[in-house]
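Onboarding guide, step 5: your first structure request.
Type a short instruction followed by the sequence, for example:

Predict the 3D structure of this protein.
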Amino acid sequence: MLAEFEVSFNEDEDGKELARIIYEAVRKEAEEPLRRASVTLSLEISKGEDEEKKSTPCILIRIHADDIVMLRALSNTWLRLIKTSKEALDVISNSR
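The system replies with structure tokens like these:
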């Protein structure tokens, strides 16, 4: 079973930096071996449909699992991990 999630960020420089920081913070977790599944992360910049559109930074999460239970558990884990990372960065930036 396969699930793919794309977490997009703002197209400005702050969004690109935020995507990079979060990706670097969580990517080591994806390297941990799992018995019934695997997770791959990539930081990507998707281009707009035409040259005038800006590029959108995103973190792409790919989960391969042997069963639906593991797929659901890993989906929840990774989406929450990225959400929590963003919330932590928001708190830090607002406290400055």
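Each response can be followed by summary notes, for example: The chain is about 45% helix and 30% strand.
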